[in-house]
Amino acid sequence: MNHLVRRLSLLLLPILALCVLSGCSGLALLMAWDQWFSSSGDNPTSYRIYLDGYDLGTTASANGVISLAGAETGDYLITVAKYPDKRRGVHVLAHVDYGKAVNLRTTNPFEGGVISGTVRRDTITGPVLAGVRVIAVRDGASLIASSGPLSLPAAAGSSLEYMMAYTDDSGQYKLGPAKYGSWLVFATQAGYAADAHSVTVQSGTDAVANLVLARDPSITTGLVRGTVTSKAGTALSQPLVTAKLATPYVPLISDALRTRIQAESGVTMPPGPWFQLATLTTLGSTTGVYSLDLPAGSCTVQAYK
Prior knowledge:
By secondary structure, the chain is mainly beta. It has 2 domains: about 5-20 and about 110-305, Immunoglobulin-like, CATH 2.60.40; about 30-110, no CATH class. It is built from 3 helices and 25 strands.
């Protein structure tokens, strides 16, 4: 059962952050939810549910009702994707009320492509990074060039189309289903510059975006770490830990990255900022242990499993 973990065992190292605990076009196939499973032959139990890119380990239902037991009231990106290839499914920005299910019956699942890659530290041959959030924004380069920084996660009702996923223990991630077209794929962590690639997803061709996170010495950070447990004190395996920041985190955009994205996308990119992140996240270990770098400032830390 998914539930919000209301107890975090926090060990705060010297840190300036104060943390407070608290509970279409280009598609191969598109149809209404209630027609999808009857006509595609897919079993709803072969589709996994993801909350802001986090695999809940639960499956879809033919009637479109999705249980998000324990999720705090707020706006979330809900992804329902066929497991494990993620080539079929749907992404929905929705408002979730605590204790209530979400009905996706009026949404339109589709078949698309996949974006995958590996995230490493410092260099393309550096150590792989587990538990890193990777975000892909459709037409992201063009949106930044025309409208300025992207504010993420987006609010329910936003026209922004994006996907999120987390790297596994081998540093690998997979995003999907992706509509055909241009996507800006990026990752960052507090104290590290953003890295990104502009990729194109086409019918029959998946995209690869390998990312490298390099230290940004201009950012002052501290470390929050601890263990996520149930009310009974049992450690919870691989929880999602989210820091909701009082001030959005704005990662460094290097000149080299700007040049690369211009070459890959064909879009004249402005200097940074490109991203304004309201949250920073990580995944805990199989024993519930986590550590999360945070910028100076105040935040609220939550865990979900």
